[in-house]
Design brief:
By secondary structure, the protein is an alpha/beta fold. Helices cover 37% and strands 18% of the residues.
């Protein structure tokens, strides 16, 4: 499931009062990390080679430079829970001070993350949540409700006269964030009575499969008006499939994606508009949160704290912090942001 300067991560995330205790917890210096106060933070992507997470890495490095921290950016080659578990075990063996992970599966990684916490490693999730038992807090780039409302609105704006069939290309069936966004989108669709929900297909965050699923979708629903992709990989694959099928004038693609990957499709009219938060700021904020926890910082529930240039954040009783509504990109601004991420 990928603005710097125009940050959509303005939002709200404070650190819930979290002190992770467990057998074998490591003693920390007052500054956290080593004798010089330097800490090491593992940033775990859903998969490597994904433009969204490359932008997250850039933001993490930016924060690390100001935090006296070292970033170990890592992840599996394919977006699987098994691959992430292997990655997490490697980070635990390296005795990092904190781990920030975007989960491929909310539950499968929990036992491994619990073992990390028992060893004194502070664990947060970002982007795609880990179940509560496996992390201290979760940093969401936006709220599920706002994302669902945004993509439903985009579909209504792109459907001819606000009418027609709408289908979704998602990532994996177990992806926490994708499933939540889909549920909220479906709840928002009744606001647009001209839209009919045709169904959802899963491209597993893999380009080839997302392409094939899109082709199958338009063959199954020849009267389809809009395809919404909740995956930054899927939206590019869906756009290519629609163009290759010669359906640019008939089927519009929208959803969540990266400006640098979609600028060509915006110019061609395949993807007239789309949305995304700022993955650079997401990486920056996740690193800030992880570093603060690693250095022993705590706050009461709901209390706002500063995360430097990103703004302030606060976590609810479940340790979840939600960001702002995703930003809309179209012909008027995509070129500007494509140069950034």
């Amino acid at each position: 499931m990928r603005m710097r300067r125009r940050a959509m991560l303005a939002g709200a995330v404070s650190l819930a009062a979290v002190t992770i205790a467990g057998c074998g917890e490591r003693p920390q210096t007052p500054a956290g990390g080593g004798a010089d106060g330097r800490i090491r933070i593992g940033i775990v992507a859903k998969s490597l080679g994904n433009g969204f997470f490359e932008a997250v890495h850039k933001g993490a490095n930016e924060a690390a430079a100001a935090l006296n921290a070292e970033i170990i950016f890592t992840g599996p080659t394919t977006p699987t829970a098994e691959g992430q578990i292997e990655t997490l075990n490697a980070l635990i063996a390296q005795r990092v001070d904190a781990i920030a992970i975007s989960a491929n599966d909310p539950d499968a990684v929990v036992p491994t993350l619990q073992r990390a916490m028992q060893r004194g490693i502070k664990v947060i999730s970002y982007d795609s949540a880990v179940a509560k038992e496996g992390r201290a807090v979760h940093l969401a780039p936006s709220s599920d409700v706002l994302i669902g409302q945004t993509v439903a609105q985009l579909a209504a704006e792109l459907a001819p006269e606000g009418k027609g069939k709408v289908a979704v290309v998602s990532a994996t069936p177990t992806s926490t964030n994708q499933n939540s966004w889909l549920a909220q989108m479906q709840q928002a669709l009744p606001r647009y009575p001209g839209l009919q929900f045709a169904g959802v297909v899963y491209g597993d965050d893999v380009s080839d499969k997302s392409y094939r699923e899109t082709v199958a979708l338009v063959k199954q629903h020849p009267d389809l008006a809009v395809i919404v992709s909740l995956s930054s990989v899927g939206i590019v694959a869906a756009a290519k499939a629609i163009e290759d099928q010669g359906l640019t004038a008939k089927v519009k693609v929208t959803g969540l994606g990266l400006p640098s990957e979609l600028i060509g499709y915006v110019r061609k009219g395949v993807v007239p508009k789309f949305a995304i938060w700022n993955p650079i700021d997401l990486g920056y904020a996740a690193t800030q949160v992880a570093a603060r926890l690693a250095r022993g910082e705590k706050s009461e529930n709901g209390q706002e704290i500063s995360l430097e240039r990103v703004g302030t954040v606060s976590f609810d009783d479940d340790g979840v912090g939600a960001m702002a509504k995703p930003f809309i990109y179209d012909q008027s601004n995509v070129e500007q942001f494509a140069a950034i991420f």
